[in-house]
Write a structure and sequence with these properties.
Layout: H1 2-36, E1 43-44, E2 53-58, H2 63-77, E3 81-89, H3 105-118, E4 127-133, H4 141-158, E5 162-166, H5 173-188, E6 195-198, H6 207-215, E7 238-239, H7 244-255, H8 262-269, E8 274-277, H9 294-302, H10 308-314, H11 321-328
Parallel strand pairs: 1-7, 2-3, 2-5, 3-4, 5-6
Antiparallel strand pairs: 6-8, 7-8
The structure holds zinc ion.
Zinc ion (ZN) binds at residues 59-60, 63, 172, 174-175.
């Protein structure tokens, strides 16, 4: 009897020890990660002024703030103009909310956008919503060619002084396709406006970091958000100086996107905003094959069914190869 009791106590002690050990290791890992997120001494992007006409080309509603929320805030503060184009018709990601949503899903997101951008005084007339379908819309050769022409017309009409978009780094296939479409438009029509890209989702794309992000809620030490590009191009990176008030405003803008994962948006809001001139990508390679990015790894670990999203992006990528080769040969 006593022996049994002693064994039980020993097992309980072992379990408690294991839990404590895991907890300490988790906190230690986050601490080491934060140390690793050292502050680079980035140069600043020239401060926008009253002549600035910034065009943000986002894929989805909310990407515009994650890409260049700070730059938009500064431009509006300095009496410049901000234009935002959404390349994708945003219905995906809202399927599970269908019973809560009484209005059209996409128009709901559009309302959120108008509210978010209205907070800094961007007029509704300066916001344009295109109707390309989520995830597969731009993986069709005709749609992609039309999209490139749409982007060219938009650039000609707005005549921006600077353009921002998300990088081609496998953060999301819609972002990658939009990056490709903009780069193609620029190359095809020899557009010389400065174009900057943002890592956006790339910042938490390593397997190790994503695990820690998922565990963070149980940890005392919190992860310091730190954006970076997948490719080592630190010397080209610029940032924008944002005050505490600007960061608060950016958070408030993100808060308008109630239909989206607020937690995901929240962790990014006070990270430094970084950009680099549009990178010369090899678009004949899908972006997520350059590096074995997180989602791809998780999807491999979990099995085929979870790969669906990536296969959607992956296989039809072949479909637009002709456009890619056409652009690359110019
Ligand atoms: Zn997006």
């Amino acid at each position: 009897m006593r022996k049994k009791l002693r064994n039980r106590i020993r097992v309980i002690k072992l379990i408690v020890f294991a839990i404590v050990l895991i907890y300490v290791l988790m906190n230690l890992s986050i601490f080491i990660l934060n140390m690793h997120y050292k502050n680079f001494d980035y140069r600043y992007i020239p401060e926008p002024d009253s002549d600035t006409r910034a065009l943000i080309i986002a894929s989805h509603h909310d990407d515009e703030i994650l890409i260049a929320g700070g730059y938009m805030i500064k431009t509006m503060q300095n009496n410049g103009e901000v234009y935002v184009m959404f390349n994708i018709y945003g219905g995906a990601g809202l399927e599970n909310l269908s019973d809560k949503v009484t209005v059209n899903k996409s128009s709901w997101r559009e309302e959120e956008t108008v509210k978010a951008l209205g907070l800094i005084g961007i007029k509704e007339d300066n916001i344009l919503f295109l109707t390309n379908k989520d995830q597969t819309g731009l993986l069709d050769i005709d749609n992609m060619e039309r999209n490139i022409e749409d982007i060219v017309s938009l650039i000609k009409e707005i005549n921006p002084s600077i353009i921002f978009l998300a990088a081609y780094e496998g953060g999301h296939c819609d972002h990658d396709m939009t990056n490709f479409a903009v780069a193609s438009a620029i190359k095809k029509y020899n557009i010389t406006i400065p174009v900057y890209e943002s890592p956006e989702y790339t910042r938490y794309r390593s397997f190790y970091e994503e695990m820690l992000f998922r565990l963070e809620k149980f940890s005392i030490i919190k992860i310091r958000p730190y954006p970076r590009f997948l490719y080592n191009t630190e010397e080209e990176i610029v940032t924008i100086n944002m005050s505490k008030e600007d960061l608060e405003l950016k958070k408030k803008m993100l808060d308008q996107y109630e239909s989206q994962s607020i937690d995901l948006l929240r962790i990014t809001h006070n990270a430094p905003e970084i950009f680099r001139p549009l990178h010369e990508y090899n678009y004949s390679q899908p972006p997520y094959e350059h590096k074995d990015t997180l989602i791809y790894k998780i999807c491999k670990i979990r099995g085929k069914s979870n790969c669906e999203f990536f296969n959607v992006c992956r296989i039809p990528f072949e479909n637009i190869k002709t456009v890619i080769e056409g652009v690359n040969s110019q």
